[in-house]
Task: structure prediction
Amino acid sequence: IRAFCLSRGLGDVYKRQSYNLDAIVNSLQAKLGSNYISPEYRGSLGFSVTQPLMRNAGREVTESGIRIADREEAIARETVRQVLSQRINEGLQTYLFVQRAQDRVRWRQRALDLTRQLEAEISRQFQAGLKSQNELTESRAALALRQAQLAQAQQELEEQINALQVFLSAHQPQDQRPMATRWLPADTLKMPTAEFADSLRMTDAQTAYERRPETRVNRLRIEREEVKRAVAKNQTEPELNFRLRYGKESLMDRPMALQ
Result:
């Protein structure tokens, strides 16, 4: 019967507790007339402590798994933060594109209205003999051009609105999506006020660059590789261990607990 328990203590110290119980049967004792009783029982109880001195020595090696796991967790968090920032930027960009398309339609509608009024005025003056046929033709060509520009702006607005619907639908649970609903910008995004645009309140470029998720991810990856490099360098050292053993052994003619 053999039992042992291996555990790691502080740092890189390994501890082992063991218990052995052996039954020895000597078939020659009966033939030789020996007074010794067979079978014999031998039991031992002890423990050993192993301390690496070169390879696998030091907290830098024993805690490398924890340090790498910490870096991996931080990388995962920064990756989530980076993806979230990208989604927010995409949402703001799509929102602004819809607003820009709405403004383009509004201004081209106003230009079309002015061109239509100008064409009507030139037509009346042509009938009164105050304008030539060429001027009337140019005003009508300008009117047709404004109509085409307005139709193009309306088509671009429809495309941007559809892009906004796709973005919002992709980031909303399926059971919470209303049927036959179109989202449109309700508020106009404007430039920040002077209070927030003050250069004294803004972060410098170097600090802003260091806070970017991709910059942090690259820094964490470098730290992770440095930990792996230190462990790999330690494995090139020769193996030298300090081992301490202590135990008690007993030989008896019946199984019994060690005293």
